[in-house]
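Notebook entry, structure prediction.
Reason for the run: the old model in the group folder had no record of what sequence produced it. Starting over properly, with the input documented here first.
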Amino acid sequence: MTNNIQDQIQEEVQQARTVCDVSGTNSAECAAAWDAVEELQAEASHQRQAKQKNSLERYCDDNPEADECKIYED
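New structure, fully documented this time:
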């Protein structure tokens, strides 16, 4: 999925450059095109952060029965 969003970012960057070349770099269309790029970049960053696990989470994925990984409910 990450590659897909990276492909979308590249397409949006190309489109933004084209829009800015046609409409001018100070146009509302140019600003909106770059906003779309920034939104996709933010989403890609969010996806990367959401997928990263810390060392304990990785350990518990591999060793769910370990004492450190047990979840106790009150």
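Summary: The mean pLDDT is 89.
The old model has been moved to the deprecated folder.
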